[in-house]
Amino acid sequence: MAGPVPRIDSALTMTPLSWAMLLLLSLCWGASFFFTGIAVTELPTFTIVVLRVGLAALALWTVVLASGTEMPRHLTFWRAITLMALFNSVLPFVLIVWGQSHVPSGLASIFIATTPLFGVLLAHFTTADERMTVPRVASVVCGFAGVVVLIGPGLLRGLGTDLLAQLALLGGALCYAISGIYGRRFSRDGISPLVTATGQLVVSAALLLPLALYIERPWTLAMPGAAVSTAVLGLAFVSTAFAFLLFFRILAVAGATNLMLVNFLVPVSAIMLGISILDETLKTVHLVGMALIFVGLALRDGKFLALIRRPA
Questions:
Q1: Residue 248: CB partners within 8 Å, gap ≥ 6?
Q2: Phi and psi based region of residue 3 (left: phi greater than 0; alpha: psi -120 to 50; beta: remaining)
Q3: CA 128 remoteness from chain centre
Q4: CB 198 within 8 A of CB 61
Q5: Which residue among 169, 187, 208, 286 is least enclosed by CB atoms within 10 Å?
Q6: How many structural domains are present in the chain?
């Protein structure tokens, strides 16, 4: 006979600070679309990815040395961080890059937004403190619907036209969900977000570098211009190094399923940055999609449902 379902740990609920960090992380990752849009005008994909994770790893390693932090030397940590790098960087980067070469970017974004859906399911069966609840399910369903509306429901007409590429994108989303749940182990083992982020990026760079060297031979490329170089630095330092520090900090204090909500906020951040920086137009469909996403976030901890159920 099954025992009682464990109570959700209050330490894994979202505090105002957690929400602020989640919003900041969505801005960092939303800005990556802007930086990438500039970088791809002169550099091929895998070269951009290696520069992104390699420069970010170098930056965080410098912080580790300057702060006197000691990186773990035992094999257990590096074996675990290699698995984390595979599921959080290497596999999803490769799957998503290949998938996006066959699928429109808007439809690809919808597939990536399934990460919280995978996360809720996986966390329910693999963790004791992030079980599936009605508010959590309502939150991710509403948030996912908001992403579909925000990006454009018309894109769904392309479903099934390139099945392998779409499965690759779903595989990337699943990898992100797995990494979010697997990454909880580092905070439980007392490893700081700085050490975890640094280790993951170092391993990711080491694994991705041979791919870039073999596929794109970057030494044959022309030196990029100032705009592209600045965009690559933004990708490395803002959207990767700083972003992964936030990623592992949120994971430690709020849990995997809460962290994955960032996938709903990234499209919002990308659109708002496009409006403020690139003079893009804010449309009614954007407002509707954002409203659904924010309702989904409000449903997250059940307080919103309790409020509307309360008698007048």
A1: 183, 186, 187, 193, 196, 197
A2: beta
A3: 23
A4: yes
A5: 187
A6: 1
> Amino acid letter at 16?
P
Which tokens sit at 219? 């030494």
Output the six-digit token pair for 202.
Answer: 């170092």
pLDDT at 187: 83
Of 206, 166, 192, the C-alpha closest to 49 is 206
Contact 66, 243 (CB under 8 A): no
Is residue 199 situated within a structural domain?
yes
Instruction: Label residue 2 by pLDDT band (50, 70, 90).
Output: very low
Query: Which amino acid does the sequence have at 93?
Result: F
The answer to the question of residue 15 being in a domain is no
Burial class of residue 44, CB neighbours in 10 A (0-12, 13-18, 19+)? middle
Domain extent for 243:
26-305
Q: How far apart are CA 164 and CA 268, in angstroms?
A: 28
